[in-house]
Design goal:
By secondary structure, the chain is an alpha+beta fold. It folds into 4 domains: 7-154, Trna Endonuclease, Chain: A, domain 1 (3-Layer(aba) Sandwich); 164-251, GMP Synthetase, Chain A, domain 3; 256-370, no CATH class; 406-524, no CATH class. 24% of the residues lie in helices and 34% in strands. The protein has 11 helices and 30 strands. The strands form 6 sheets. Strands 22, 23, 24, 25, 26, 27, 28, 29 and 30 form a 9-stranded antiparallel sheet that branches. An 8-stranded mixed sheet has the order 20-19-12-13-14-15-18-21. A hairpin with a 5-residue loop joins strand 19 and strand 20. Helix 2 (80-88) packs across helix 3, helix 5 (157-174) packs antiparallel against helix 8 and helix 6 runs antiparallel to helix 7 (223-229).
Length: 525
């Protein structure tokens, strides 16, 4: 069977020949690429002043992808690989459209890879489409090709139009942007300066939004690292892809000093803060890692509202002991309090509007109460303890331990099998020391409660105690160990008691490596 040639092959071959002839007519030297992977011709400008003149040939190549069609409307199609090839080239490039009017007549059009074309192809690649169409009306006539090539072979042209395109892609999202290419003998980089730094990062998922929220309103000393860890916007990065790396992103973050006041019926407190904002929130940041934030207007349950939140930075290792002003500010809050913001013309908001604030307030009040316990000076309570459920439970327990009226340790307890009743036991005066283990973010506390009363015996062994009052004897700070429970607990041999919401609950014994050394101690008078 003889070989066959289809219409597409015939159109392609004639189209390339027509482009080649048009180049020659316009003093452009077309070099056909033998192994074609995206570019059909590498063209060089003939710089002669006229047809019969002798002149130099430019030492710069311009790559052309040639598409031919016999459609009446002259439409051609590029797929995603075609667009990526045009954008990725490290030399000037262009797209040529050859509209055939039969085998002997053609109209030639072209388009160079300028700023507008880069933006257009980048938007196409950022979309979900698989192809993009072009028509003669989208292109320039071939009579302008020599002048156009003269523009694109100018020194620095390619990087300049790519930088301009990246800026045009970014500014609808980020606002004004300046992009500069920096290069010396040893290094190169793209320097990006943006008024809205935060707009450069992905904010599509809940996790991405929370990461941006923490970078904006968390402890200011952690902001730089958190921003380095954020994922840059894929759409914005698409505009930068072909600029020199690394990318250096700089910009402005508003940190305006101001004051926030909390006012109750009987007391008030103030906190020096920095006012800052991103696209989704504005807020007030205390440098230790506490913030009050207000969202932009969002739709919720059919109406538009502003969502308010109190934040304790979950990574801040700043010691609360070094920031008594923050502790006093939080401890002053109560459900009837209001916040007043100096920089918002005296705007006042009820504290109850701020999500998560009540838990922070309870912890701060408990921390302030617990500071009077013996051995407290060595306890390392940090701002991130306010954000941890386990640490919150520990702080509330410790605050209760400082109140003699509350007495969180059981005053009477039988440690034997359930069938043994108190009346079956003998009693003798003595002292009992009970260890309660509390976990903080970075350490475990062993709080020793001591009380004098009656020790209970059964068959000659201590089996319980009855004590009218306890006091905290000391607090040991140990390396942190994990626990199955998020609550303070007492190790009692075969079982463990956990302090959950003010009540002791019995559970199986803990299995920590050092739990056996924390047994309840008894001493007869």
């Amino acid at each position: 069977m003889s070989k066959k040639r289809n219409g597409a092959q015939r159109i392609g071959a004639i189209g390339e020949d027509r482009f080649r002839l048009s180049c020659q007519e316009n003093f452009i030297i077309p070099n056909k690429v033998e192994h074609d992977f995206g570019f059909d011709f590498l063209c060089q400008p003939d710089l002669a002043a006229g047809f019969g003149k002798i002149g130099p040939v430019a030492g710069v190549f311009v790559g052309f992808s040639v598409r031919a069609t016999d459609r009446d409307d002259g439409r051609i199609r590029l797929n995603r690989a075609d667009a990526e090839c045009l954008l990725a080239a490290h030399f000037p490039t262009g797209l040529a459209l050859v509209k055939l009017n039969g085998p002997k007549s053609a109209s030639i059009y072209f388009r160079m890879m300028d700023t507008a074309f880069i933006v257009e192809l980048s938007d196409f690649l950022a979309s979900a489409r698989n192809s993009k169409h072009f028509y003669p009306k989208d292109m320039r006539p071939v009579t302008e090709i020599r002048a156009a090539i003269g523009e694109v072979i100018a020194t620095g042209y390619l990087e300049q139009v790519r930088a301009d395109a990246a800026r045009k892609i970014a500014e609808p999202i980020t606002g004004p942007v300046q992009i500069q290419i920096h290069r010396d003998a040893d290094t190169q980089a793209t320097l990006i300066t943006s008024l809205d730094m935060y707009a450069w990062f992905e904010q599509g998922t809940a996790a991405e939004k929370e990461a941006l929220y923490l970078a904006t309103f968390g402890e200011p000393g952690r902001r730089d690292q958190r921003m380095r860890d954020l994922a840059l916007s894929g759409k914005l990065m698409g505009g930068l892809t072909h600029l020199p790396q690394p990318y250096v992103l700089a910009g402005f973050v508003m940190d305006h000093p101001t004051q926030v006041y909390v006012q109750t019926a009987s007391a008030s407190a103030e906190l020096p803060v920095l006012r800052t904002a991103n696209e989704h929130h504005f807020g007030y940041v205390y440098p230790a890692g506490f913030a009050l934030t207000v969202s932009v207007r969002v739709e919720q349950d059919g109406q538009y509202v502003h969502l308010m939140r109190a934040l304790a930075d979950p990574d801040s290792d700043v010691l609360l002991a070094n920031h008594p002003i923050l502790v006093d500010f939080l401890a002053t809050c109560d459900p009837e309090s209001t916040f007043r913001f100096d920089d918002r013309d005296g705007l006042t908001l009820d504290v109850t509007h701020f999500e998560d604030l009540s838990g922070l307030v309870r912890c701060a009040a408990a921390y302030r109460d617990a500071r009077g316990l013996d051995g407290w000076d060595a306890v390392p309570v940090m701002v991130r303890d306010l954000a941890s459920a386990e640490s919150q439970n520990s702080l509330i327990f410790l605050g209760a331990a400082a109140d003699l009226q509350v007495q969180p340790v059981p005053r009477g307890l039988l440690l034997t099998a359930p069938e043994v009743e108190e009346q079956d036991c003998d009693a003798a005066p003595g002292t009992v020391s009970v260890p309660v283990v509390c976990n903080l973010a970075d350490s475990s506390l062993v709080v020793w409660f001591s009380g004098h009363g009656s020790l209970l015996f059964h068959d000659g062994d201590v089996c319980g105690f009855k004590v009218p009052t306890f006091r905290v004897e000391t607090i040991e700070v140990r390396p942190r160990v994990s626990s199955r429970s998020l609550f303070p607990r007492v190790h009692l041999g075969p079982k463990t008691l956990t302090w959950d919401a003010g009540q002791w609950q019995e559970s199986d014994a803990e299995t920590e490596s050092w739990a056996d050394s924390l047994s309840t101690r008894f001493q007869l008078d």
